[in-house]
Amino acid sequence: MQLNWKWSSEKQYPLCVKLVVSILFLGLAFRLLFYRTNAFLNVSETLVSVDFQENRDRIPENGTQLSNNFNRSVSVDLDQSRYELTGKLNQYPENSTQASENPSVSPDLEQNKGQIDEHNGAHQPDNPKPSVSDSFPESRDQITKKGLEYAGFLIWHDYNNAEKCDLFTGDWIPSSSGPRYTNETCSLIEGHQNCMKNGRPDTGYLYWRWNPRDCELRPFDAELFLELMRNKSWAFIGDSISRNHVQSLLCTLSKVEQAVEVYHDEQYRSKRWHFPSYNFTVSVLWSPFLAKAATFEDYNGVSTADIQLHLDKLDSAWTNEFQSLDYMIFSSGKWFLKTAFYYENDTTLGCHNCPNKNQTELGFDFSYRKVLQNVFNFIVSSNHTGTIIYTTSSPDHFENGEWYNGGSCRRTEPVKEGELEVNELNKILRAVEMEEFEKAAAKASEWGINLKLLDVMQLSLLRPDGHPGLYRYFHPYDMDNSTKIFYDCLHWCLPGPIDSWNDLLMEMVLR
Ligand SMILES: *[C@@H]1O[C@H](CO)[C@@H](O)[C@H](O)[C@H]1NC(C)=O
Ligand SMILES: *[C@@H]1O[C@H](CO)[C@@H](O)[C@H](O)[C@H]1NC(C)=O
Ligand SMILES: *[C@@H]1O[C@H](CO)[C@@H](O)[C@H](O)[C@H]1NC(C)=O
Ligand SMILES: *[C@@H]1O[C@H](CO)[C@@H](O)[C@H](O)[C@H]1NC(C)=O
Ligand SMILES: *[C@@H]1O[C@H](CO)[C@@H](O)[C@H](O)[C@H]1NC(C)=O
Ligand SMILES: *[C@@H]1O[C@H](CO)[C@@H](O)[C@H](O)[C@H]1NC(C)=O
Ligand SMILES: *[C@@H]1O[C@H](CO)[C@@H](O)[C@H](O)[C@H]1NC(C)=O
Ligand SMILES: *[C@@H]1O[C@H](CO)[C@@H](O)[C@H](O)[C@H]1NC(C)=O
Ligand SMILES: *[C@@H]1O[C@H](CO)[C@@H](O)[C@H](O)[C@H]1NC(C)=O
Ligand SMILES: *[C@@H]1O[C@H](CO)[C@@H](O)[C@H](O)[C@H]1NC(C)=O
């Protein structure tokens, strides 16, 4: 076991504590030789929080469309579908006929028929929940080896994080270890985030690690993670940030085993992978609003009609899968900034950003709040025995403009705390999600639901250097001047800072 951390002076513990820990450690290691690990996994949990986002990638063909349709402050319209389009092109032969199969009415429409209208099942307060169980291999040797490592991890963990360290307050510190995978070792990196392949010249952004202020964060251990996840299933549910995140996890795990894609939907938006040696399943479920929504966009990602969002109905894309999943990582937010009409009981309630439509402007915070309330109500009253994590919104880093009018991100190093501020829209999104999460977390602990927060807001804010920027395109410097190109200062390069979210996830899974 390696405990080769550089302990800073504040993190020194007295010798006697170390001695006690060593003894405990030995004891645990022995126990692990004879017992399965369940018992150790029931370490009690507190909330941990984190957030994430969306996709800004579409290039509208008509620049003018933008100024008409998008209020400047509504920067999120970074579209999705262009993104989808390119994703698809990456999957298919260049001139595939997919375009004709891609109706301007998004498939979400179909998917969402048969939605759940009600989700207030009775509660069951004393619902015991083993969050991780039976995760050890059968072979004695493996049990020994992994058991020892795991015992070490836990001991180290309890020792180090005795006071419920806040994982999300800290700093990025230089790290010589570099990325855990590259464009050569992982084939699952989406073209738009494959900064290495696309020719990003600087590599400094790869040599940092997140260091919580009051404890050490152990780097992700792919082998241990996979061991713990035998027979388990995970899903990342949300928008393009969820997709960004799932790719980071799959690539990180790929050095132990390559994931095998076993499913994709027609649009390549939702996918499922399997790790055969571990019988571990990972999915990404496309559900940018988490609620039932009809989106209308043409093949180029230009809106052909306004979004219809049903605030009282959840998206069956994830509710149908809910009970079969052991771990779920939700994220949402950015899509709520788009122009949309809001419905409740199938009747219009109002809208956001729709002047001259004779509708009440309700604001995106109104709809985001309503939807999150429904999502959390559903979760809290679900009797689910797995682990459910809500990822907070992560900020974008467009400077000197928005994504569509010249905004860029050219930094090559993290910033210090206080150097950048969260913009107004992100502040509003965050306020909503934090308030609703806190309320839900209180109920969740009462009803025995394992709900946690992965709070990536602050740590992401410090990484303006981690976005693809122009390197969302392959060799952007080769493009001729007539091509209108946009920076992506929202998603993350892979490898990149988003990989550290998995360190946090692992910590949360173990706690
Ligand atoms: C977009 O451009 C095409 C061709 O340049 C034009 O026919 C179409 O009307 C434009 N659409 C909008 C909304 O401006
Ligand atoms: C965008 O919204 C802001 C605030 O809601 C408003 O002041 C501004 O006039 C709007 N701009 C456009 C182009 O609609
Ligand atoms: C592209 O389309 C052409 C004609 O439409 C077809 O002959 C060719 O096989 C296609 N290429 C691929 C890679 O499918
Ligand atoms: C995984 O499932 C298989 C088949 O149900 C079972 O034999 C095995 O013990 C399980 N492994 C773990 C670690 O739960
Ligand atoms: C990976 O990126 C490098 C440039 O950083 C490039 O030379 C190489 O061709 C890329 N490999 C793949 C498989 O994309
Ligand atoms: C794989 O895991 C699932 C539970 O997620 C279990 O039902 C199934 O039996 C396992 N299969 C094998 C071959 O272990
Ligand atoms: C929708 O229906 C519910 C229950 O039937 C009712 O309480 C609520 O007020 C209705 N909302 C609207 C906007 O009609
Ligand atoms: C605006 O809506 C109200 C009530 O929904 C309706 O009475 C009124 O006729 C509408 N006005 C216009 C110009 O459509
Ligand atoms: C949760 O469990 C309780 C008690 O078993 C049950 O009444 C309720 O219907 C369950 N809720 C859901 C959503 O399954
Ligand atoms: C791009 O624009 C620059 C001046 O802005 C010009 O010198 C150059 O020739 C152009 N390149 C191409 C490929 O059009």
Automatic annotation (TrEMBL):
Domain Trichome birefringence-like C-terminal: from-to ranges: 219-508
Topological category with respect to the lipid bilayer: Single-pass membrane protein
Gene Ontology MF terms: O-acetyltransferase activity
Region (Disordered): 91-140
Biased composition (Polar residues): 91-105
Residue ranges of domain Trichome birefringence-like N-terminal in the record: 163-216
Keywords: Membrane, Signal-anchor, Transmembrane, Transmembrane helix
Bilayer-spanning residue ranges: 12-34
GO cellular component terms, semicolon-separated: Golgi apparatus; membrane
Pfam families: PC-Esterase, PMR5N
Family from the record: Belongs to the PC-esterase family. TBL subfamily.
Protein name in the entry: Trichome birefringence-like N-terminal domain-containing protein
Origin species: Thlaspi arvense (Field penny-cress)
